[in-house]
Amino acid sequence: MNIHEYQAKAILREYGAPVSRGVPIFSPDEAVAAAQSLGGPLWVVKSQIHAGGRGKGKFKEEAAGEKGGVRLAKSVDEVKTFAAQMLGNTLVTIQTGPAGKQVNRLYIEDGSDIEKEFYLSILVDRATGRVAFVVSTEGGMDIEEVAHNTPEKIVTFSIDPATGAMPHHGRTVAHALGLTGELAKQAGDLVSKLYRAFVEKDMAMLEINPLIVTKDGQLKCLDAKVSFDSNALYRHPDVVSLRDTTEEDAKEIEASKYDLSYIALDGTIGCMVNGAGLAMATMDIIKLYGEEPANFLDVGGGASKEKVTAAFKIITADPNVQGILVNIFGGIMRCDIIAEGVIAAVKEVGLQVPLVVRLEGTNVELGKKILTESGLNVIPADDLDDAAAKIVKAVKEAR
Length: 399
Ligand code: ADP
Ligand code: MG
Prior knowledge:
Pathway: One-carbon metabolism; formaldehyde assimilation via serine pathway; Carbohydrate metabolism; tricarboxylic acid cycle; succinate from succinyl-CoA (ligase route): step 1/1
Cofactor: Mg(2+)
Organism: Segnochrobactrum spirostomi
Strand content: 25-35%
Helix content: 25-40%
Keywords: ATP-binding, Ligase, Magnesium, Metal-binding, Nucleotide-binding, Tricarboxylic acid cycle
Number of strands: 19
Structural class: alpha+beta
Oligomer: single chain
Shape: elongated
Binding site for Mg(2+): 209, 223
Bound molecules: adenosine-5'-diphosphate, magnesium ion
């Protein structure tokens, strides 16, 4: 689960990490009040969306002005103007994809005088099974690019869970960032606070880009991106309450209600599959035959008729879907349940696009019989290749 920058900073503040003062707002009038309460003389108006690259992003609407999704303001009036330009408009960044994201809230923050920008992140390193730090002097820019072009500028280390963050971890960070004296002390302090926040809140990732040194010699977290381990959310109701569902895909939210593993994608062929591996293989073979999958969907091993119906409805509700491929291996799952689920869903929502069904395994004959006798326009397929070829052909013919 992801949260907004201002929410992440509130958590960091709770743990004593240095962040700027700021106020989240939803309207230009609130922006004025926020700017007045902060006092200035420099403010930053920051779009709150669940995507990075906001500073270099561009708004789709001309009325939103030329500047990006993070703007420096030198007066209360300017804060108000920027807020009015940005609210309700669509920000496109390298992380949002071409469709962009609508900006519905802003964070009005104290402006900092930046001396240097660094990068710092914490994540779970699956190779070592530990919490790892990634730090670099190359802050404020795309870390993937730094990793690719100048990997020597990235320092990583992991932390032994038995000891937690130790003074030497702080010294490693200070050394990597070229910090000495008072700033090195601040770095040590920051490392232990961030580590505590990360572990206690069950974060999956915490990224500070940039971590800055101000002109008056303070280390500060100027941006904060946090995601949480969904499996641990049950023990953090405070974190769950931060969820902003308007930032999430409506189809994915619907799918999560039925405990379906669903991820929306950009292609044209909706897939309903059981088992993550089979789902991946199905997506691959659709691509191999020249089309793109519209989603990843694993209905799971023991799906009920209701679950299958919900899944089918989510797929058909996607306007990008031009054809549907149902690919089920009935191990624990029974093919007749799938057939009944598909029929129930089609009765409810209709079927406007070609549907190819490939069933194999438990009760396969019964499943096929149910589908044939339903009178639905289902194209049966024998194996994975056959199924992919048939759905791609049907989609192309229907265009
Ligand atoms: P994003 O990573 O989404 O572009 P950031 O929060 O990192 O958003 O902001 C982009 C840039 O804007 C930062 O690298 C920094 O240079 C500047 N910036 C952000 N917040 C402030 C602030 N409070 N004061 C001064 N400059 C800021
Ligand atoms: Mg940033």
